[in-house]
Design a protein that fits this description.
Blueprint (H helix, E strand, L loop, with lengths): L1 H24 L9 H8 L3 E6 L4 E2 L2 E2 H7 L3 E7 L17 E2 L6 E4 L9 H4 L4 E5 L10 H14 L4 E4 L35 H10 L13 E4 L23 H10 L19 E4 L7 E3 L17 E5 L12 H10 L19 H6 L3 H8 L3 H20 L9
Helix pairs in contact: 5-6
Length: 401
């Protein structure tokens, strides 16, 4: 077994290194780097920028680049985790003034998810630049949708600066059922949808998934990446949010974020969120960790309690699939299985957070009934195939298949 593991590891590293070498020869440049394509569109306009700390161009923030180019930034709009990317997951942020530039900041993860008419009345054009990680429950694509709907409703043209998707090399997971739609999943896409944020935006428009007045006619311009395709294992040099601080965590995230809907700790409050998984009641595991309060995780699950479980920080995530075998293993290892999934008020299936993350109630029932990973994965295939047909219409870059 060990020989097989090391053989797989060797092939994976060889494949990954070949992609890194290719990136060194032809560096991948996100849309923000193509300043000659979008700065002229912003000249002499009052600009509203939706962004956070990830919008970097050659080690300089997009905001600084625009200001140096003489662009009039009227407002900065921010998503979950705020402009600096330090707020906790789920922590509401407030409107403020940016201390570095004096520009007004409008939080779109506080009292509202999208800008209103008053926010946009003194703006001529909107710009969107945020690094996504390619999982349906990562909330930046929900923020994108609300931003697009506001742009349409207020007749404001929108430019999206595209960025590569670090999980853009595969599609997997159950397709969301509409009754389970929420801010952690608004549309009928799989958990891993294999699209950049620019491609996803064109799909929202093209498939008429946007709500509200004028949504079909939203004026959308996407500035694409250079030298990127969907076979690329793109490596981020900025943590996209406070609990995704390594590429290993980003690769594990589509699988282990499901643990947020269970009684187990998903590792928030440690150096390896989404790679440390455990609980005080887990037995026969040689690994332990203790979640504690820190920036981005002030009140983590099971704070200050010794948890026993899984250390994925030195283990490779599956290259092109969600590790449902691992989720089943964790369920089987927990001694009080009836309380593994965190119950919702009245135990209504659509209110279980695990079901919101999964996008259905089926996955929880399948795990509880002892279904195998093979059976669970087979139940996803029809939905995945339907989605892939839709997805293919909106791809800007060479696909993985």
């Amino acid at each position: 077994m060990k020989k097989l593991f090391y053989l797989f590891l060797s092939f994976f590293l060889l494949w990954a290194n070949s992609k890194v070498i290719a990136q060194d020869i032809n560096p991948i440049l996100p849309g923000a780097y193509q300043t000659e394509q979008y700065i002229p569109l912003l000249k002499n306009k009052r600009v509203g920028v939706f962004t956070n700390h990830t919008a970097i161009i050659n080690n300089k923030h997009l905001i600084d680049t625009l200001l140096l180019a003489g662009i009039n930034i009227q407002k900065i709009f921010t998503p979950e985790h705020g402009l600096r990317g330090t707020a906790d997951a789920g922590e509401m942020t407030i409107d403020s003034i940016d201390s570095l530039t004096g520009i007004q900041i409008v939080s779109l993860y506080g009292n509202k998810y999208g800008p209103n008419q008053d926010d946009l009345k003194d703006i001529d054009i909107l710009l969107f630049d945020i690094q996504d990680v390619g999982a349906r429950f990562y909330t930046y694509i929900s923020s994108l949708q609300y931003f697009m709907e506001a742009a349409a409703a207020n007749n404001k043209p929108l430019i999206i600066l595209d960025r590569p998707n670090p999980n853009g090399h595969y599609v997997d997971g159950p397709v969301l059922e509409k009754s389970f739609a929420s801010f952690v999943g608004k549309n009928s896409v799989p958990i891993v949808y294999g699209m950049t944020i620019g491609e996803y935006a064109t799909m929202l428009k093209g498939e008429h998934w946007l709500n509200g007045k004028n949504s079909a006619g939203v004026s959308l311009t996407v500035i694409p990446c250079k030298n990127y395709d969907h076979q690329t294992m793109y490596s981020l040099n900025v943590a996209p949010s406070p609990n995704l601080t390594s590429m290993n965590a980003i690769y594990w995230y589509p699988s282990t974020c499901l643990i947020e809907g269970t009684i187990l700790s998903e590792g928030r409050g440690t150096d390896h969120a989404f790679a440390y998984i455990g609980h005080p009641l887990i037995a026969n595991k040689g690994f332990e960790f203790t979640p504690s309060s820190r920036t981005g995780a002030k009140e983590p699950k099971l704070k200050n309690k010794i948890c026993y479980g899984w250390d994925l920080s030195q283990k490779l995530a599956p290259k092109n699939k969600i590790d449902i075998e691992l989720i089943i293993e964790m369920y089987d290892a927990f001694p009080l299985r009836d309380s593994f999934f965190v119950a919702s008020p009245g135990k209504k299936t659509t209110n279980y957070y695990f079901n919101k993350l999964a996008g259905n109630a089926s996955l929880m029932r399948q795990i509880q009934s002892g279904a195998s990973a093979k059976q669970i994965r087979a139940s996803w295939q029809k939905g995945i195939l339907r989605f892939k047909k839709i997805r293919k219409k909106y791809l800007f870059y060479k696909d993985f298949e």
